[in-house]
Design goal:
By secondary structure, the protein is of the alpha+beta class. It has a single domain, classed as ph1033 like fold (Roll). The chain has helices at about 1-5, 15-20, 60-75, 155-165, 185-190, and strands at about 45-55, 80-90, 105-110, 115-120, 120-135, 140-150, 155, 180. Strand 5 and strand 6 form a beta hairpin. It starts with a helix and ends in a 12-residue tail after the last helix.
Length: about 200
């Protein structure tokens, strides 16, 4: 074999010592490769729980916002069963760099009357951004979902109670944005609704 043909001499202790003396560990992104700053691969999340607050798009942005919605609506394949919904950030959130099209999202919305409503899972159709402040160049980031037309919501207390059995030690006490990286846990949370978006009665 090719590898066998390369092994022509035994590796002796003095040769190993010479190799150790000459070896220099590589540097990545300006950090020492000593194990303390070792980069870790982030396991992609199949599902995100996204914490939101009720907010109205400023009138000056409505046209740009609706243009993005119109484009997303064209991506819906079965309009009889599905529709689009959108949520947005006044800046680029950290999750924007990790979300992939097709990921599942459960929206948790705190409304102006302080009620907290959990919406059925939707799939990410598209992400777009536009400049919301021409003076600063700041952008608004918009996330478009495909959601079931006849989906049912839960109040936060109901969701938290039913989700506790799935999340276990990681159960949510208050709404917060959270990636669900464990596939089994993600599947368990998605199963709280039927494929048509109705709250599961199981």
């Amino acid at each position: 074999m090719f590898i066998d043909r390369l092994c022509t001499e035994p590796v002796r202790p003095d040769y190993l010592e010479e190799c150790k003396r000459l070896y220099k560990p590589p540097r990545l992104n300006g950090q020492r490769a000593n194990g303390k700053h070792r980069q870790q691969r982030v396991r992609p999340a199949k599902l995100w729980i996204v914490n939101l607050s009720e907010y109205s798009i400023p009138e000056s942005e409505v046209q740009r916002f609706e243009q993005g919605e119109a484009k997303a609506a064209k991506l819906v394949k079965d309009e009889a069963r599905s529709k689009t919904e959108s949520f947005y950030w006044p800046y680029k959130p950290k999750m924007a760099g990790e979300l992939e099209l097709g990921d599942w999202v459960i929206q948790v919305m705190t409304h102006k009357d302080k009620s907290i409503i959990v919406y059925p899972p939707g799939r990410l159709l598209s992400i777009h951004s536009y400049i919301r402040d021409s003076d600063s160049g700041k952008k608004r980031w918009v996330f478009h979902l495909e959601v079931p037309r006849r989906g049912e919501t839960m109040i936060w207390k109901e969701f938290r109670r039913t989700a506790k059995a799935v999340l276990g030690a990681y159960a949510l006490t208050t709404p917060r944005t959270k990636p669900i990286r464990d596939v089994q846990v993600a599947d368990g949370l998605l199963a709280l609704w039927t494929p048509g978006g109705r709250v599961s009665r199981r």
